[in-house]
Amino acid sequence: MPTVAIVGEKGGSGKSTVAVNIAAELAARGRRVVLVDADPQGTALVWAGIAAEAGHASPRTLALGDTLRAELPALAAEHEWTVADLPGRASKRAIGAVLVADVALLPCGPSPADVWALASTLEVLKGVRESRPELRLAVVVNRADRTAIGASSREALAGLGVPVLGATLGERAAYREALAAGRGVTSYAPSSTAAAEVRALVDELEELAGTRSRRRKR
Length: 218
Hints:
By secondary structure, this protein is an alpha/beta fold. It is built from ten helices and six strands.
């Protein structure tokens, strides 16, 4: 069953927001999901704690550290989806997770600095893929805007040699509000643009992981 590693070099890329919302939407679709918080900031774990206190449904969430590489395969065997929120930078812990992941998803902000930081992470991940050619890499534009800087950044991303997903997540208050409430945005504000963005992202992620087509055949 797919393991998705959310990877990012630059702080502020929104890794935890992406991880939480992907896991929450998959769970809302009836998938058996585990959300792994391997980031020392512990954002996903705090979010899950808020959800539990408020009585909101949320995916199983747990913290893992340096044993991540060894424990992820066992978790994947027990769940339909494993979503891992990894530390910033290409640390030993992050690379260990990518070595056993099926998909490495890289959130990237809309500025040139975000693209530059992403390029260094991609160099490391491309090295990993030399030993694991089955590893799928993809970029998701996060905190997107409609400015010229955002457009030029997308052009720069296209030149990095890694697929950029069609789904993008905008700079929207709904994401921050949902996180603070211990909810995924698709349940917190189901009719919002933010919710539509997350649903499109998860649709695309299911296609990338090959699970959407398998479910259609059943």
